[in-house]
Amino acid sequence: MRSIFFKILAWFGVLLLFSFAAMFVTTSMVMRDYRPMDRFAGRGFDPKLEDAIAAYQSGGKEALAAALARMDRYGPGEHHLLDSTGRDLITGIDYSSLARAPRPGAPPGRPFFGPPPGGRGGWRGLSADGRFQLFMQGRQPEFDPPNLLPYYTWIVVALCLLCYALAFTFIRPLRQLRETLWRFGSGDLAARTNSRRGDEFGDVSRAFDKMADRIQTLLTAERRLLQDVSHELRSPLARLGFAVELARSGTDKPAAFIQIKKDMDRISGLVGELIEMTRAEGDPGERRLAPVDIEALISSVAADCLFESDAKACRIIRRVQEPITVTGDEELLRRAIENVLRNALRHTPDGSDVEIELRREKDSAVMVVRDRGPGVPEEMLSDIFRPFFRVESDRARDSGGVGLGLAIAQRAVSLHHGRIVAENGNPGLRVSIHLPLQPAHS
């Protein structure tokens, strides 16, 4: 019964049943005490005929007159006992024109009302042998039912209230959806219906919420990208302009070209990492979730980083307690682990070790990457995951990177409903990635 179609069908069925029941009950209540005048017109007519014949045969005209007088007192009209020709047995008046012959096929002795000549008529009953007939002269009782319109008013009011309730049931979720659409269209990207209905209105509302989530993610990523790019490109572009002027007019042109090449490489690296970050926080519908062997992924990433580790004479030491598989986007997880590992290799001293540990903690897979560098001030541990953030010490602009690696890792982990935490290892920095073992949902 959650479908709108069945709701409408059920509502109209209830309204029809209610209408029939209400009209029946109302009519029964109104007509309960109503007694139409013609109810007794035919009831007891045969006993009257028998009484009149018995009185006439036993006591003559006087007994018949007394019996007819009693009938007149309790019945609507004047009673006359007629012979077979229609003549009154007491007064001798001929009533044949009023007391007509019975209808063709009518059973003998049953009363019927003859068409009244001159506006008059009467009820008559014929004896079984056809010798006598009882005639009751008077008007035909008319059926005059009362005016039922006032009594049916409550039915109309009740139906109007039920129809209003039906309309309100349909209109309220539409109004809520319209209000949410208006807020979202006005720039409130966080506007959601949060509907829990189980019918088509709920389906439409949840479809809108899902669409709004994707739009908000894409627009937020785009805005952040524009802000970060404009902020980060300002300095290298200014230096490029200055180096170009030196190359044109200065005497040390080789140094100017070296600076130009350096800034161009920096801009190229910046653009590459910005593209990676944008992909990491892009459309959730584009992500492909599948089982990912974390141990194999760590081995693959460590192999890719051998060039950096060999250049600094560093070793990458892996400690895996047990194979662990999580459900997620393998490419996003690779970027997260690779960025954390490359960040550790960048800041660890030459000839030292970088450790990667994989273990299980309750319902989570935990990866810990530790270097042997100077670490990060305690008050800045949570800031290192912000885009373009740098610690103004060893981890500065000259040490490589543009400050996006850990931000990319943090967003990739968040999309898997995990968390990434940094803490000082004394010495070095220890970055822990926690991923839920249950399938991640967008």
Rg (C-alpha, Å): 52 Å
**How many domain units?**
4
Strand order of the largest sheet: 6-8-9-11-10
Count of alpha and pi helical runs: 10
Remind me, CATH topology of the largest domain?
Answer: Heat Shock Protein 90
- What is the average per-residue confidence, as pLDDT, rounded to a whole number? 76
Helix content class: 40-55%
What structural category do the secondary elements indicate?
A: alpha+beta
Number of strands: 11
Q: How are helices and strands ordered from N to C?
A: HHHEEEEHHHEHHEEHEEHEE
CATH class term of the largest domain: Alpha Beta
Give me the CATH architecture of the largest domain, please. Answer: 2-Layer Sandwich
Largest sheet: 5 strands, mixed
pLDDT < 50 runs, ≥5 residues = 35-43, 101-120, 393-399
Strand content: 5-15%
- Termini separation comes to 30 Å
